[in-house]
Amino acid sequence: MMTKRPRLLTVGETVRRTTVDRGLLMDRVAGRPEDELIAPYLVRGGPLGDFCESLRDLVAHVLMWDEISLAVLTEARHGRAHWSLAERWEEPEVGASLNVSGVAAGRELPVDLLLDRFTVVRDALLDELSRYDGERWSAPIETEEPRAESIGALAQHVMTIPRHEPYWHAAIHLGELAEVTS
After folding, report:
1. With helix as H, strand as E and coil as C, how does the chain read?
2. 11-181, superfamily in CATH?
3. Domain range summary for the chain, segments of one domain joined by +
4. Which of 14, 55, 138, 167 makes the best surface tag, with the fewest CB within 10 Å?
5. What's the pLDDT tens digit per position in 7-20?
6. Using one digit for the tens of pLDDT, what is the confidence trace for 106-165?
């Protein structure tokens, strides 16, 4: 059965959504003391999801996926495929394992270093996305990756939570998707 590919968003919309989404998370953690950032955190009466129990965990989770996305896009710009695009890494159980290990790694860092790393990676990811104009964003690229017809299609694939609108991540976990998309 053939699945319909989602409409490719423009590079401008990609940068906007990524900026808003990561800004939402940074606004949520801003000014909170460390004990609040590592304390259990619930949204609308439920957990954050993907093995995240605190805001620090959510920062580590989003950071890990942003690091992977940045590496995928950087490798593609150099004509190489990133390890995460191999079929074996696309299995749900493997994604769950990555989520567990990414959150666990974040718990090993002092909160201030984790937040600094998040900020640096967010800025690098936005810089990588912003290097493309509309023509280069949607232009065909040479790759064996079927989901990567263009850099834009590749970015949309790697930066989108399955079965969700493209590029929203922190907003979904924080239960704020309706607020940022309205």
Report:
1. CCCCCCCCCCHHHHHHHHHHHHHHHHHHHCCCCHHHHHCCCCECCECCECCECCHHHHHHHHHHHHHHHHHHHHHHHCCCCCHHHCHHHHCHHHHHHHHHHHHHHHHCCCHHHHHHHHHHHHHHHHHHHHCCCHHHHHCECCCCCCCCCEHHHHHHHHCCCCCCCCCCCHHHHCCCHHHHHC
2. dinb family like domain (1.20.120.450)
3. 11-181
4. 138
5. 999 999 999 999 99
6. 999 999 999 999 999 999 999 999 999 999 999 998 877 766 789 999 999 999 998 899
